[in-house]
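[agent] plan:
  1. take the single chain provided in the ticket
  2. run structure prediction with default settings
  3. attach structure tokens to the ticket
  4. add a short note for the reviewer (M.T.)
[agent] executing step 1
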Amino acid sequence: MEGGLNLLEMWNQMGWVAKAVAFVLFFMSFWSVGVAVERIYTFTQARKQSKLYAPQVAKHMKEGRLKDAIALSTSKNYATATWPRSSSPGCRSTSSSRRAAAR
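[agent] step 2 finished; step 3 output follows
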């Protein structure tokens, strides 16, 4: 087949610098696919943990049990979830405000 794209012929005609560049690009493409798969997995786990966390912390907040909400936020069960990291400072602030107002 004349004029076609044959990877083996192309590889054989490459110099050592071109082969090195091709190898680095090949390695980097597989690395980026691996990173993408890992990110998808991590975000999926975080979403699942956040969906479990939200109703539990809302229950504690409605009942006025801020210490339990803070403890839940620092639990290892929600290590990858984003809501515990963002709601924990708010719970702590509300808790300290209530303590100051009670004095």
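[agent] step 4 note for reviewer: The longest helix spans residues 16-62.
[agent] ticket updated
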